[in-house]
Write a structure and sequence with these properties.
This protein is an alpha/beta fold. It is built from twelve helices and 13 strands. It has helices spanning about 25-30, 50-65, 105-115, 120-135, 190, 195-205, 215, 225-235, 240-260, 270-275, 280-290, 310-325; strands spanning about 5-10, 15-20, 35-40, 75-80, 85, 90-95, 100-105, 115-120, 140-145, 150-155, 160, 265-270, 300-305. The relative contact order is 0.16.
Length: about 325
């Protein structure tokens, strides 16, 4: 690739896929001028692998049309995929939300697009985007936590994306929180994800607790997503606030343990639930994190929201691809 060739960045989530055509020199242009064209649509994970890939290819075509470029003119494609990913081989070893196991995603997409494809974990991509152009700029020790359908994590340590010995570091959502709980209720993700928040609220509504979510969704509780939660939360709905605040405090307690372990300077929160609720959610997490963090110096840890929002993952995926394919070694 040349430094002039744009890169497609893909943020593939369990609920949505966000695709953008990104300038390869985005570090120089800054976040405001980084994205040339975008397209977003539902992932529809339940439809299976072939349908997801077809939708992904359509989304890339539409993003390129929006940017006024041809796929053949791209310098490459970067994709952030959920779950455990080997970034060197581009194999997704385990993506729970998509029900993928040992999937050679980089090879499949390279063949479909005809341009080289780089695959990494979705939150690795998001925190890399924040580190290059967003809320983590200038920080050397950062934890990223993305709260949405599930919960993902990623680490910047000593000014570099940290993957660990098995290349899977940062799987924060799968850490045990309550090891003696029944199966399916033990991990951070089991207790703090948007999916869990919705499940608990709906269960309580069906147990005769009242909530404005009943009216907001016309009692179609399968339609409760982050936006509906935010509407209920911001209107003062008691039940929604109770459950969301509890999840935020539990999440902050677990983050505080990681801050203690690694003596981190910053935590960046992202994902659909964080973005929808906004500062009230971040403040709850921040307070709980600082209560747990040890020693006293660690209680000064910055806990902030993503500034790139929906664009963090696609920008980070594109920048990771640009660095890998351009040989800059920036990651």
């Amino acid at each position: 690739m040349t430094t002039q060739q744009p890169i497609v960045g893909i943020d593939l989530g369990g609920t949505n896929m966000q695709v953008g055509v990104v300038r390869a020199d985005a570090r120089e242009t800054g976040a405001a001028g980084a994205i040339l064209g975008t397209y977003r649509q539902k992932t529809k994970a339940a439809d299976g692998f072939d349908a997801i890939i077809d939708r992904l290819c359509t989304a890339v075509e539409r993003a390129c049309e929006d940017a006024g470029v041809r796929i053949a003119d791209l310098g490459g494609v970067g994709i952030g995929a959920p779950g455990a990913v080997d970034p060197h081989t581009g194999v997704v070893h385990e993506a729970v939300n998509l029900r993928w196991t040992d999937l050679p995603l980089a090879q499949i997409l390279t063949e479909r697009f005809g341009v080289p494809t780089v695959v990494d974990n979705d939150v690795n991509a998001a925190i890399y985007g924040e580190w290059v152009l967003g809320a983590a700029q200038g920080a050397k020790e950062v934890l990223g936590v993305w709260v949405g359908t599930g919960i993902g994590g990623a680490l910047i340590l000593n000014g570099q994306l940290y993957r660990g010995h098995n290349l899977t570091a940062g799987e924060f959502g799968h850490m045990l929180m309550f090891p003696r709980n029944p199966p399916g209720t033990r991990t951070v993700e089991h207790n703090c994800s948007r999916t869990t928040v919705v499940t608990r609220i709906v269960r309580l509504i069906l147990a005769n607790r009242t909530s404005s979510l009943s009216e907001i969704t016309n009692e179609r509780y399968d339609k409760v997503k982050s936006r509906a939660l935010a509407t209920a939360y911001n209107s003062g709905d008691e039940l929604t606030r109770e459950v969301v605040d509890d999840a935020a405090e539990l999440l902050g307690g677990s983050i505080g343990g990681i801050v203690t372990l690694l003596s981190l300077e910053k935590v960046v929160l992202g994902g659909g639930l964080t973005e929808a609720i906004g500062e009230p959610f971040v403040e709850r997490v921040r307070t709980a994190t600082r209560e747990i963090a040890f020693p006293a110096k660690c209680k000064d840890v910055e806990v902030v929201a993503s500034t790139l929002l929906d664009d963090a993952g696609l920008i980070g995926a594109a920048m990771l691809a640009a660095d890998r394919l351009g040989g800059s070694g920036g990651e």
